[in-house]
Amino acid sequence: MPAAAPPLARSAAHPLRLAVLALGLVLLVSVWLVLPAAACAQPAAGAQLFEAHCAGCHLQGGNIIRRRKTLKLAALERESIASPEAIAAIAAAGLGQMSGYGEVLGPGGSEAVGDWVWQQAQAGWPRG
Ligand code: HEC
Hints:
This protein is mainly alpha-helical. 68% of the residues lie in helices and 3% in strands. It has a two-stranded antiparallel ribbon with strand order 1-2. The mean pLDDT is 86. Heme C binds at residues 53-54, 56-58, 63, 65-66, 69-71, 75-76, 79, 81, 87, 90-91, 95-98, 101, 105, 113, 117.
């Protein structure tokens, strides 16, 4: 019985090794393709979340309900909320007349939208 094993192993080893190599290559390439996309996911998610949950009242960083309470840099500085963390906190918990959106934004959502709003404010809301 043991004498029959080596030829079998030899004939099976080659295609098997090729398959493992191919699988490894596919995995390597997909990780290589997916990693940069994951790194970019944060700003894109922030923009989409803003579009879905904030733009209704804060179109292009404005405020349709309370005209002075905009997301423009000057207004954020005046209100001492000029940081991504402070914006994220308001996005999650609300402020005055604005209710909190922590639940609909999901895990990490308020941080993503806070980062994005802060970037937009610093850039002067170029694309709003
Ligand atoms: C239904 C309308 C509405 C929506 C939707 C909304 N906001 Fe607001 N937001 C307001 C109002 C009204 C205020 C002013 C609150 C106050 O001071 O009484 C405000 C204030 C703010 C402020 C403070 C701005 C300042 O100059 O004082 C930030 C930051 C903010 N909102 C971020 C967000 C983000 C991020 C979202 C999306 C997750 C969002 N808001 C969604 C109505 C809204």
